[in-house]
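Dear Dr. V.,

Thank you for agreeing to look over these. As mentioned in my earlier message, I'm a first-year student in the group and I'm still getting used to reading structure tokens, so any feedback on how I've presented them would be very welcome. I ran two proteins. I've put each sequence directly above its structure. The first is here:
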Amino acid sequence: MSPGRPDFDAATAPASDHDPAAPPPLRLNIATGIGVIGRPLAIFLLATHAGTAALLSVVLSPTGNAAKAWAVGGFIVFDLLMAAWLMSQLCHQTATKIWRPLAEAFPGVAPAPDAVRTNFYLGFGIAWLGLGGLAHVAADGRHLHLLPTALLRRSGATPISVPLERLERPRFSWPMGPNVSIAGVPVRVPGWVRPLVGPAPAAGADAGAADGPAARAGT
């Protein structure tokens, strides 16, 4: 757990707290995750395979070494551009289809100064989609905060703050899988968040208000 950088603009945070009425379950599941990565990944694979075929046709032809060197260089540049395009597309799709529904249901509020925090959490994931390193995770006595990194913020992602009483245990879980559920959405967060999640929303609310994450993380 490392000290966080100032990635949350308190001036844009909502002044009011969350509405006490629980939001309905969100329709974010494994199909959503496949939809996010499916089309961009298919285009990337088709383009890189076409580039590989073009490169091989030049390398295996009787052309001179200079032409082959240009072909190899062009292929490397093409691959780098395609990798950058794939990353931008994945971030955009993630921000709009995965992150935005949660941010609209649980708008961000500024974390408390003593919030426990893990930056660039590599195991982070939402709706069975691994988003390692694309979010910071923090928790104080009232909320679990999911803070997008610069890549996701450029795609329009905004902070998410989930009241602790809204955290539930996921229906299905395993060591490397989701370990909390937010409005029915499976989410993978650091292990120190697990003690904040009760067997039912009411139990989670009482526990979060009584102890707070800082005390529990140290036990």
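The second protein is here, in the same arrangement:
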Amino acid sequence: MSPQSFKRPVPQDAAKTKPVYQSEEGELDINAMSPAEIAKLSPAMLAKISPKMVARIQPKNLGSLTPKQFCTLTPKQLYSLQPKQVMHLSPKHLGSLTPKQVGCFAPKSLGSLTPKQFCSLTPKQFCAITPKQVMHLSPKHLGGLAPKQVACFAPKSLGSLTPKQFCSLTPKQLYALSPKHVMALNPRQVAVLTPRQVAALPTP
């Protein structure tokens, strides 16, 4: 057999070969990684991912981040999360966030949490929900809350609920409100309440 038959394969041009987990934009591509590999990413590596790339992470892959990893995302990264992504977050993921971080979610994305996810938020996290965010909550979100959770909303945020949202609150939930909450309500919110609901409101 001639020596030519033992020629080694010509290696690919290293300049044309990109890292295994690199996207076309040159960023870390979490979608190319396994759940086990995702769970090993350091906060420093996650911080380098642009908000635009974070928005492209497949929901199941985002859910593969540990709560400890998830809470290291920046405000801009959290704001970039899409509705279909947040639906794959566990109560532990949400519980790992600071109140300020919860306030960073895009209103539409926060409103895409399931009622079960939403009611898992802590009192301090409820207090951080912004007026723009509450406007994207459904009656199911509000109806699943315990009275003490409703009482955690900031007065300004509660006053931003639409009349349709506000009238979905039960007498028990309304009874838990503080005088400051009542003072933040607008006439249109009160006008849609039943006599029983009005009677449950505390006196300002």
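From my reading of the second output: The chain has two domains: 24-128, 132-204. The radius of gyration is 24 Å. Does that match how you would interpret it?

Kind regards,
E.
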